[in-house]
Specification:
Helices cover 4% and strands 47% of the residues. By secondary structure, it is mainly beta. It is built from five helices and 42 strands. The two termini are 16 Å apart. It has a 22-stranded antiparallel barrel.
């Protein structure tokens, strides 16, 4: 924008090789002889670091300056170039697909770029906000926070940093921040073969880290000021401060950049706040004209509360905030008999009754009330047992209107995450046709995530990955046709240990519709009087029951990362079961070693481009149950190891219809590794999946096949001003699902995702830019037995939890609308004043598999005013201008209309 200081890319890194005449550069050469001669040259040159230390010819000393048209440029590796700093058009070369540089138009995948212009000026508060930039990103219903990766084309995607997969979870990951980043590529479909195996194949976002400033010292300070809500809540302090500085340490040789961000935010929703501090630093070194080295490091500590959404979701709750308030009555199984306490409206026990289980025609369970039994004084005649469901008694449950800020969030039980990420990248150009790149990354992720939803998740994960890439470019002739051949050949190794303790209760305290009364004040939030205890986690010993009066439930340890309830979620081999259904274990100590060889090629012949790649991977996995023997005798002796190989490939054919239009078709066949919430391999989902015997890995989990077929068109309608994209696709993903009771064979469900995506970016000048997208998505799960829960009915009979059916059916994926559209726009006047806005439109989505509960379609919009000058920028943004009020089927409702400000000072 006008008045904004120019920044050189300076990072990883634009390097120029020796000056060569164009006629030499363009001279066709035999490909095999070129490749062989340079591989021999590298092999004889010693190790990579030794090669990097060797200086190039003295006459070739070049620095990051404007390009000489007579000089062949070394392609920068995942670098944000100067032009992309002031545009939203896809001008930045794409390297996060094949490794070698390609223009967006000639890359045969659906790719949407986020440039520094958007990261600096827009409020990007969560992964849901990425939907405004890419039609591949699914707009989440309601308000989404603390998600590590976006959903793309109907399923959870992956996150990468400079081409290396990050340790992330879907939800409850950590508060979202872009402090370390200045750009991103959002790519639909499986990650490219050079990136290695992954459990998530729907798509990925490749974040590009901030680069050092080589030209001069510079920096900025920004302050995001808390929000004022228009629903009467008033002002809530939500402050974020970022300090970003950098500059050269040795002129044109060594430069640095440091960025710190701190947040202390009181959320709109009751029982929620967020605090974190994160520091990012990078050091760039250009020892000579042929070599670039980049070292970056990130450390962050995050404190936040789990978002447990809302329970007892009905159409009335979604549409007019009417909630069925009051205590739910548990169904307790003791042996083969079922009991329930008789409750009053305060939740006090007035007696006990026997119940009879009835299986309804649709496979759901109901429980008829019988005669009163036992002693109503609290000495449980029923005795210790297992809660297998709940019913709502109309005598103690009644509809009430609840506020926007009510959710299942208890104060005081804070989640804590520590994240470390260090990356060393080195690039050496040995000749105009041969370049070597090495990328070494270490990651550390630890989270302690207690949840009043009945689950305590403690994860410690690490990653050490090294990838070596040999980039070659050759020109030769085949049958008289000129061929430009680019290739990326290499190997990678990834070591990924993961320790996960999870404690869950069959009582199901979370959003499925249980005993919580959402109308209670979170400041004094306790379980109702029937449960007689404060909110989870319960501080006590292993043998202390929460229900001292009744004795049929146990509590949890407060923070100690060893589950207290070994019968739930922690059974060796992974499966704790009840007569109603099954639960999968996510307590494990695993290590996954992956060694991969890959080869990616591009042949550019006239108007045709042919891309082909293949990867072979060897996977070695080990697993053990880390629970000590005093809790579960023999648990710590149970484990397994396995060695598997998988193979992935991709093929693409592109045709340049004209100099500005490219059509493409892509096929990818990817073998993925099934994983759990932390991304690690785990015990098989059910005993029937254990094809190698009890308590052992399943080979099936190492060969989860995902297939993509995509056809697209990319059109630069007006050069450097208007860019259009269109894509149609079908992707299938093999899914391993939990098995309901009654099945006697393994279950592989197939996710089928078909859609059309349209996108446009228009920027006729630096004063104005516009973007818009549209998506049609038909997503179904075939051959599935997803639970189709009974509706929430206060009839003292219908079980509102733990309902499954043993009938295989095809289900529409929940929480996904078929049609979505989004747009964003910005206009800045010559004097620095500007206006920006974005909107999202979506149609209805199913909440349950049967489609009995739905979220209606709705429109949301945001707007902003700003004043931008060379040294400072002041902006005010209004979020949810339309004040859309959707409870979103269990997700946190959308925040009401609110105003937020930001001040940026540059120096």
């Amino acid at each position: 924008m006008p008045g904004r200081p120019y920044r050189t890319s300076g990072g990883f890194h634009s390097i120029q090789p020796p000056t060569l005449p164009k006629e030499v550069i363009n001279q066709p050469t035999p490909f095999l002889s070129v490749m062989f001669s340079h591989l021999v040259r590298f092999a004889s040159g010693g190790a990579l670091l030794a090669a990097l230390a060797s200086a190039g010819p003295a006459s070739a000393q070049l620095h990051p300056t404007e390009a000489d048209p007579n000089v062949l440029q070394l392609d920068p590796l995942v670098v944000t170039d100067a032009k992309s700093l002031v545009t939203t058009l896809p001008v930045r070369p794409v390297t996060g697909v094949f490794g070698f540089e390609s223009s967006n138009r000639d890359t045969p995948r659906s790719i949407f770029q986020i440039n520094p212009e958007q990261i600096e000026n827009d409020f990007i508060a969560s992964v849901s906000d990425l939907a405004r930039y890419s039609p591949s990103v699914n707009q989440a219903t309601g308000y989404v926070e603390n998600y590590g990766t976006p959903n793309l084309r109907g399923a959870q995607g992956d996150a990468y940093q400079n081409g290396v997969r990050l340790i992330t979870r879907g939800g409850n990951n950590r508060p979202f921040t872009t402090n370390a980043y200045e750009g991103a590529d959002i790519v639909a479909g499986p990650a490219p073969i050079i990136f290695g195996t992954s459990a998530r194949t729907a798509g990925y976002i490749n974040y590009l880290t901030k680069k050092p400033f080589f030209d001069r010292h510079r920096g900025s300070v920004s302050w995001t000021i808390g929000r004022f809500y228009g629903d009467g809540s008033g002002f809530k302090p939500q402050n974020t401060v970022q300090i970003d500085v950098g500059g050269p340490l040795v002129e044109r040789k060594l430069a640095y950049r440091l960025s710190f961000e701190g947040t202390d935010r009181e959320q709109f929703y009751q029982g929620r706040d967020t605090r974190y501090g994160q520091i990012y630093g990078t050091l760039g070194w250009l020892p000579d004209a042929h070599t670039a080295v980049d070292l970056n490091f990130e450390y962050g500590r995050f404190f936040w509360q789990s978002n447990n959404y809302q329970n007892r979701v009905t159409n009335e709750l979604i549409r007019d905030r009417t909630y069925l308030a009051g205590p739910a009555t548990p169904i307790i199984q003791v042996g083969s008999a079922f009991y329930s306490p008789v409750l009053n409206q305060g939740g006090d026990v007035t007696g006990w009754i026997r119940r009879t289980r009835v299986v309804n025609a649709d496979g759901t369970n109901g429980f008829t009330a019988g005669a009163v039994v036992g002693d109503p004084t609290g000495n449980s005649t029923a005795g210790a047992g297992t809660i297998v469901g709940y019913v709502l008694d109309p005598s103690i449950v009644s509809p009430v209107r609840i506020g926007d800020d009510v959710g299942l969030n208890a104060p005081g039980f804070e989640s804590e995450t520590t994240a470390i990420n260090a990356q060393l990248r080195a690039k050496r150009q040995f000749s105009p046709v041969f370049t070597l790149v090495n990328n070494t990354t270490y990651q550390y992720y630890e989270t302690n995530n207690p949840s009043n939803g009945g689950v305590h998740n403690w994860i410690k994960a690490q990653v050490l990955e090294n990838r070596l890439e040999a980039l070659l470019t050759a020109r030769y002739q085949v049958f008289g046709h000129d061929v430009r051949h680019q290739s990326n050949n290499g190997l990678s190794y990834r070591w990924e240990p993961n320790l996960n303790y999870k404690d869950g209760q069959r009582a199901g305290y979370g959003p499925t519709g249980d005993q919580y009364d959402l109308t209670a004040d979170p400041a004094t939030f306790t379980r109702n009087a029937f449960f007689g205890a404060t909110i989870y986690p319960f501080s006590g010993t292993v043998n202390d029951p929460v229900l001292t009066r009744f004795g049929y439930l146990k509590g949890f340890w407060a923070t100690y990362p060893v589950p207290e309830s070994p019968g739930d979620y922690n059974t060796p081999g992974g499966t704790g079961s009840t007569p109603i259904g099954t639960l999968a274990s996510q307590t494990y100590d695993t290590t996954l070693d992956t060694f991969s060889l890959f080869s990616q090629h591009r042949l550019d012949v006239g108007r045709f481009i042919f891309d082909a790649g293949a990867r072979w991977s060897e996977l070695k996995a080990s697993i053990a149950n880390p629970l000590p023997s005093p809790l579960v005798p023999g648990n710590d002796t149970i484990g397994d190891s396995i060695r598997e190989e998988n193979f992935s490939h991709s093929l693409s054919l592109s045709y340049r219809v004209s100099d500005r239009i490219t059509a493409y078709y892509t096929y990818a066949g990817i073998e993925a590794v099934n994983g759990n919430t932390s991304g690690a391999v785990a015990w098989p989902r059910t005993t029937l999946d254990q094809d190698r015997g009890p308590n052992r890995f399943s080979t099936r989990d190492f060969h989860s096949v995902s297939k993509l077929k995509e056809a697209g068109l990319k059109f630069e309608a007006v050069p450097d001003k208007l860019f259009l994209t269109a894509a149609a696709y079908e992707q299938t993903r093999l899914l391993t699902l939990a098995l309901p009771a009654g099945f006697t064979e393994p279950l592989d469900a197939l996710g089928v995702f078909r859609g059309v995506e349209l996108g446009v970016r228009y920027q006729p000048s630096r004063h104005i830019f516009i973007g818009a997208s549209y998506t049609y998505l038909d997503a179904i799960i075939k051959n599935s037995t997803f639970a189709s829960a009974a509706p929430l009915v206060a009839d003292n009979f219908t079980n509102i939890q733990s309902n499954t059916t043993a009938v295989r059916r095809d289900y529409r994926v929940t929480a996904l609308p078929r049609n979505t559209a989004s747009a964003f726009a910005n206009y800045q006047f010559n004097n620095g004043f500007g206006i920006r806005g974005d909107l999202s439109l979506r149609d209805s989505a199913n909440v349950d598999n049967a489609g009995r509960i739905t979220v209606p379609g709705y429109l949301t919009a945001n707007a902003g005013l700003y004043y931008n000058q060379t040294r400072y920028r002041v902006s005010i943004d209004v979020q949810n201008v339309t004040n859309a009020d959707r409870r979103a089927g269990g997700n946190t409702p959308l925040e009401p209309i609110n105003v937020q400000g930001r001040i940026v000072y540059r120096f």
